[in-house]
Design a protein that fits this description.
It comes from Tepidamorphus gemmatus. This is AraC family transcriptional regulator. About 50% of the residues lie in helices and about 15% in strands. By secondary structure, the protein is α+β, with helices and mostly antiparallel strands. It folds into two domains: about 25-175, Jelly Rolls (Sandwich), CATH 2.60.120.280; about 185-295, Homeodomain-like (Arc Repressor Mutant, subunit A), CATH 1.10.10.60. Strand 4 (about 60-65) and strand 5 (about 65-70) form a beta hairpin.
Length: about 300
């Protein structure tokens, strides 16, 4: 009898497919973990990275094959696609940040060092690192306050605090060279490298053959890795990235649909309309109108 597959979650218990480019969520650890008897069953987040600040309590986290103790105060980095399980001590508290890969790319602002640091799983106790613990806690607290408080400039402040967290992770990864790092497998490594290539080429390269050749694997091997770690084919991930970029332009720019089509690599705006409609369920213009109505 075959076992049940490890669940893939949007958030801990919420499954979903449509991942927005700038999505970020933060909540207190006790909100979900307490309700689940302080135990988080094995699962992964194919499109989101999680960063935890554990202020008090502790426990053990298993990432892939390795179990790591949580000794607060500590920061935990769980990159997208990493299977993890957490057994918290009762009463553990702190924050859980769940951020889409696109959100992290925006916050990194082109600094490759930040991208690399947040893609590395690990548990980082703050003691002895030189980081100011009060400042670390203040960053998470401020992010949480802005997340639940609708005030002018909210979006800008959230991204600024997210960038601060990425810088903290970079410094922690340098101060703790091993970081108790859990070693991902080859499928995970291939998926990470494929997603990095997508960021550079999704506007002008639609052929999986291009990506497979650049990664020195076959298309079948690339597909197998994507299915294993993200639950989607390589083509699904490519098309998802194109759609996310289109949505971002539709919501945050004044460019026409035809202009947006050309900006993301479509020579024929009519084909872009069909591509978008097939995958989103409504035409680009209708998506823009709905998004703007909901923001009013």
């Amino acid at each position: 009898m075959r076992g049940e597959p490890i669940p893939r979650y949007y958030l801990y218990g919420d499954q979903g497919e449509d991942v927005e480019l700038d999505f970020l969520h933060i909540e207190a650890i006790r909100e979900r973990s307490g309700a689940n008897y302080w135990r988080i069953s094995p699962h992964s987040h194919p499109d989101h990275t999680q960063v935890l600040l554990v202020r008090e309590g502790g426990g053990v986290i298993r990432m892939e094959e390795k179990a790591l103790p949580i000794e607060p105060p500590a920061v935990i980095v769980i990159p997208a696609g990493i299977v993890h399980q957490i057994n918290f001590l009762a009463g553990t508290d702190g924050y859980v940040v769940t951020a889409s890969l696109g959100c992290l790319r925006r916050a990194a602002a082109g600094d490759a060092r930040l991208d690399v640091a947040v893609a590395r799983p690990g548990v980082y106790p703050l003691a002895g690192t030189g980081l100011n613990t009060a400042a670390v806690e203040d960053t998470f607290t401020w992010l949480h306050r802005e997340f639940i408080w609708s005030a002018p400039g909210r979006r800008t402040v959230i991204m600024a605090q997210c960038m601060r967290i990425l810088v903290m992770i970079l410094r922690l990864s340098i101060s703790r060279d091993d970081g108790g790092i859990a070693a991902p497998n080859r499928d995970y490594d291939l998926l990470v490298r494929y997603r990095a290539l997508l960021e550079s080429h999704f506007r002008d390269q639609r052929s999986l053959g291009f990506y497979a050749e650049a990664l020195a694997v076959t298309r079948a091997r690339l597909n197998a890795a994507c299915k294993s770690r993200a639950g989607k084919t390589a083509s699904d991930l490519l098309h998802e990235r194109i759609v996310i970029e289109a949505k971002r332009h539709l919501v945050y720019s004044e460019n026409s649909v035809a202009q947006i089509a050309h900006m993301i690599g479509f020579d024929d705006p009519a084909y872009f309309n069909r591509f978008f409609t097939q995958r989103v369920g409504i035409a680009p213009g209708a998506f823009r109108r709905e998004a703007r109505r909901s923001a009013e």
